[in-house]
């Protein structure tokens, strides 16, 4: 191995040890020198790489998968030109989003219109029809969303598109540190909560006790305004097309199916050893490092954390979410099925996710294909196969009790399956009041390292791109 850990003092943790890289092990052909090394080829990493390229900065983009895209997942039905978006569904007209598509020759396209189907609400615990639950009407939902829009408008100055100006501990609005249930009931917005949880993927395992801050971060003013206005859009072609075009533009400077094995970071630059899937190793020497992948302790271990970084990253919690496309013969393709917590009855909209996991099947078309988008998330650790097993068991439970009419077993035939696992703050109010956000943002620029991505702003592509536009000028000052 070209690098190793050297403890700074006796008994120091491995994460805090110094990394040393033996440059003599790399030939000139396996050494890459650039202005900026970008780690992660999802929404923020790809966007940043294109912007830096257009600013005539030399870059290298490192992505663990064999393609760029992040949470954009597109399935093309074999032998056809028909595609199904099973990851990111649409985009907001916010920040530089439309201009980014046009820069890569992709037309922003038309307003997003979800496929219309009859929804069936099922009790997650029993598999039976969730009798007695009255979902909010469209009018109730829209009126509640408008109330939430007015409420969140007061926080845009320090939450959109990022948290650079987050209030000092003593100045944090008290509402943001209250349980969301308290604020939601006071505002009378319970009817909006199912829509907020569906779009924002917030509240897995229950939303009521979450700090209001986290709900505002997940479904704040920008996304609520787009929801109220109905201004979400889809690009012409597919959601993946912009990443395919970015790949064509940046092809010589992208390392796909590659991971950072180890690195050295200092105020004078960074060195990274990058290992590809075939075992080949390259040395990257860059003036700046931009990390767009979630900076969990596990993801950051190869970069050698210092004590300040470890203190911040050790407080976060992982989340587990999966999306896929499956042929499911036992569900009427005019139907979608939502599995909800039984505590939602009769109209407790705040409780629809009061269960360790959530599951939904959405009919995607085309007619006769029996294809469904599968959306599954948990508040506990679960693997790819365990997630599929739980989906199968939950579906079978509904069959066994007669909710879904079918003889025998009905196993989804997966055409595609991807994880959208991430990390969230989920810190309690005490930690937020101790200056956590300020400590987090103090990491920006330290040891020649900058950050962007879902951890630093709202979890939507347009927000991530807008936030990246606030990071790059700061990064470029040092070049």
TrEMBL record:
Q: Does the keyword NAD apply?
A: no
UniProt keyword Coiled coil present: no
Q: Which UniProt keywords are present, listed alphabetically?
A: Signal
Q: Which InterPro entries match?
A: FAD/NAD-bd_sf
Q: Which positions make up the signal peptide?
A: 1-17
* Record-given protein name: Amine oxidase
Q: State the species of origin.
A: Lophiotrema nucula
